[in-house]
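sorry for the late reply, my laptop died twice this morning and i had to redo everyting from scratch. anyway the thing you sent over, i finally got around to it. pasting the sequence first so we're on the same page, its 215 residues, then the predicted structure underneath. double check i copied it right bc i was rushing
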Amino acid sequence: AAMADGEDEELVLSPAQLLLSLEQAWLNEKFAPELLESKPEIIECVVEQLDHMEANLKRAKRGDLKVSVHHMEIERIRYVLSSYLRCRLVKIEKFFPHILEKEKSRADGEPSILSPEEFAFAKEYMANTETHLKNVALKHMPPNLQKVSLLKSVPKPNLDSFVFLRVLERQENILVEPETDEQREYAITLEEGSQHLIRYKTVAPLVASGAVQLI
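ok and here's the structure:
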C-alpha cells in the first residue's frame, strides 16, 4: 500500500506496517481527549487492502484452514477501522464548535484534523443544532437573548486530563508541571519502551509526531 505525504512523495508500507499504523491511530484516538489529525491516507490504503484480501478469499478453496484464518483477520481489521471512525464521529458530535473553529484557523500547510467527509458532517451537525435551538428554545426568549454562542455553551476537550502512554522514541527535556503550590516546571526524560501516566497536553505534540503511543 502507498501513502502520499504533504510533499506528494509516496511512502510504501507493507500490509503489516499499514495495519500497525491503523491500530496506533485507533488507540491514540480512543484515549486522547481531543480529536487528532485526520489520517485519510491510512483509511484509503486499509480499505484497498481489505478489498484485495476479500478478492483473494473468493479465489481460495472452500474448507481450506487458511480461509477461516483470513476471514477472521478481515473481520478484525474491519472492527478496528469502524471503531476508529466511530470514535472520531463521537468526538465531532461532542466538540463540533471547537473543532470547526480550529479547522477555520488552521494555517496553510498545517495538517487538517478533519477529512472532507468529517468536515461536511461537522458543518451539517452544527447547522442542525443551531436550527433546533432556534425552533425549540430561542424563539420563546426575549430578543436580546435569542443569540447563543455554541463555542461558549459546548464544553471544550479537557486537555488537562491524564493519559497512559508507551514511549516509542526516547525523548529528553519534556517539561512537566508538578501538582505543587509553586507550579514550577521541571524536565524529565522519557526512555524508549517505558510507560507513563502524564497530563495529555504535556505530550500532545509527541502523540501527533508518533514518538509516544497512548494505551
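Residues 15-157 form a domain with the Methane Monooxygenase Hydroxylase; Chain G, domain 1 fold (CATH 1.20.58.1030).
thats about all i looked at so far, will dig more tmrw
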